[in-house]
């Protein structure tokens, strides 16, 4: 946010159109993941340089959160291919309900976690319309998914209701650099994708969680490098954006953005924020 509290509009030029209606955006997200489901784990492992699909710094925070959760009931919204579900089932031994918009992503998760089917239920559905009664889950996991929701305030309100008092929310997502007031990152994502936007700063997420009655017990920002080639392979190619369009966006970056994201000729630094919070209701 700028000092006025209003965000400047990042304008991708020649990249993906930013004015996509809410229903169309959801359809785009669903189609994007369904088309990419089989490749998702490989692509994430390449980004993080780890066969676990996340770097240790992220997965260690997640797994440490669920020590002592054996047989507790946990919801993962946007469970995807089961990148988090599998280690949580294996190591934390919890009971997991995984919800996702994409049937193809759920099929990946089902195949991968077939030996845990007694403790793993999969739901094809939209987290904006959670099909659960109140106060049932001991914890909710939301990894790399918050930026897809129209309103993080609404979803946090709903998640808070489905949690038992004292329940845990484990949030992780790509975030905007804390001092990025030019919307460089939002513009970058909109340049290479029609479906990816609405990223927030770590401090914004923290404030939203607190406003919904969550107490933050851990917050960690993990910086990692991403090449432009990998950004194109993940998003640009799918949305038919020429590599040159991305390069032009990068070349127009201000000195401040260049420093914040450590832009080089081949890549940039991105920030993944993990927040573990407890529902104080
Ligand atoms: C980047 S992937 C993350 C998957 C998994 N959480 C992980 O960390 O690997 C985002 C997932 O969120 C799902 N998703 C996006 N919007 C959703 C919604 N409104 N309801 C349910 N799932 C959604 C997508 O289909 C996709 O599988």
- Helix amount: 25-40%
Number of helices: 10
Radius of gyration: 18 Å
Shape: globular
Instruction: Tell me the CATH topology of the domain at 22-176 and 200-225 and 270-279.
Output: Rossmann fold
| Main sheet record | 7 strands, mixed
Chemical compounds bound to the protein? S-adenosylmethionine
- The H-and-E topology, N to C, reads as HHEHEHEEHEHHEHHHE
Structural class: alpha/beta
So, CATH architecture of the domain at 22-176 and 200-225 and 270-279?
3-Layer(aba) Sandwich
Amino- and carboxy-terminal Cα gap? 29 Å
Overall average residue pLDDT: 91
Overall CATH class of the domain at 22-176 and 200-225 and 270-279: Alpha Beta
Give the full name of the CATH homologous superfamily of the domain at 22-176 and 200-225 and 270-279: Vaccinia Virus protein VP39
Number of strands: 7
Strand order of the largest sheet: 3-2-1-4-5-7-6
